């Protein structure tokens, strides 16, 4: 096995952990990826040695370790962003009663980095760490609102960007409407049965992060969407005003 193969295999193991499967045993890793058991254990122990995984002796299973948490902190706490937004998200969820989230652009995907699920039994959740293409769903498309037509077309020419479902012209028209309103809203192409409202976060670099409010389509009729959209935009403006007072030279 080459060094590059080992790296990709180790990364595959890390990606296998989900909220539905928070732990994995050596035999499970071997079966899932077609490794021999000695290879699976060698990779798992290497990840454990570097604190990317922890081993529970009772269950004989591995789970995500403190190094992953440290790296997540580097991403999430830059510019004290989480501290600034967590109370805002809590307020927004209370006002809308629905799931609220923050998505960051990481490469050519929008990735959920903060999420507060709705208290309703029937609700929409993406999951922290889950990423979607920029051309799928309101969250990703909202990251394109600051691009002009040439910028959008240049982005779509990149090999890892899926073509828009309705075509380029439809995407451009949707973005123009979003610029006029200050947000995008619609049936979410990334979460089945969901409607999402997304707006760019105005106090960070354009195209870098968005707020979202999401709900089951059955509960988010057009009037409810409009009310939630106004609430979303008002909350971001409220928070921006607070942050401007705290540090007027950065906004």
UniProtKB/TrEMBL annotation:
Positions of the IclR-ED domain: 67-251
SUPFAM superfamilies tied to this protein: GAF domain-like, Winged helix' DNA-binding domain
InterPro entries with a match to the protein in the record: GAF-like_dom_sf (IPR029016), HTH_MetabolicPath_Reg (IPR050707), Tscrpt_reg_IclR_C (IPR014757), Tscrpt_reg_IclR_N (IPR005471), WH-like_DNA-bd_sf (IPR036388), WH_DNA-bd_sf (IPR036390)
Source taxon at top rank: Bacteria
Molecular functions per Gene Ontology: DNA binding; DNA-binding transcription factor activity
Transcription keyword on record: yes
Keywords from the named record: DNA-binding, Transcription, Transcription regulation
Residues annotated as domain HTH iclR-type: 4-66
Pfam families for this protein: HTH_IclR, IclR_C
BP terms from Gene Ontology: negative regulation of DNA-templated transcription
Protein name, UniProt field: DNA-binding IclR family transcriptional regulator
Organism: Kutzneria kofuensis
């Amino acid at each position: 096995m080459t060094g590059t193969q080992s790296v990709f295999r180790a990364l595959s193991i890390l990606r296998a952990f989900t909220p539905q499967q928070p732990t994995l045993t050596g035999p499970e890793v071997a079966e899932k990826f077609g490794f021999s058991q000695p290879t699976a254990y060698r990779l798992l122990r290497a990840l454990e040695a570097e604190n990317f995984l922890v081993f529970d002796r009772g269950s004989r299973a591995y789970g995500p370790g403190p190094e992953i948490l440290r790296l997540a902190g580097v991403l999430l706490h830059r510019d004290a962003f989480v501290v600034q937004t967590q109370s805002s998200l809590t307020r927004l969820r209370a006002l809308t009663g629905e799931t609220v989230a923050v998505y960051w652009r990481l490469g050519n995907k929008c990735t959920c980095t903060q999420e507060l699920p709705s208290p309703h039994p029937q609700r929409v959740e993406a999951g922290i760490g889950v990423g979607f293409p920029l051309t799928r769903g309101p969250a990703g498309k909202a990251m394109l609102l600051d691009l002009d037509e040439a910028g959008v077309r240049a982005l779509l020419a990149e090999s890892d960007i899926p073509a828009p479902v309705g075509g380029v012209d439809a995407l451009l028209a949707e973005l123009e409407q979003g610029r006029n309103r200050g947000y995008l809203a619609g049936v979410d192409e990334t979460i089945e049965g969901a409607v999402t409202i997304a707006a760019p976060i105005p106090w960070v670099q354009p195209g870098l992060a968005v707020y979202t409010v999401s709900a089951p389509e059955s509960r988010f009729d057009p009037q409810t969407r409009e009310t939630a959209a106004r609430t979303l935009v008002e909350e971001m403006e409220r928070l921006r005003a607070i942050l401007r007072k705290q540090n007027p030279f950065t906004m």
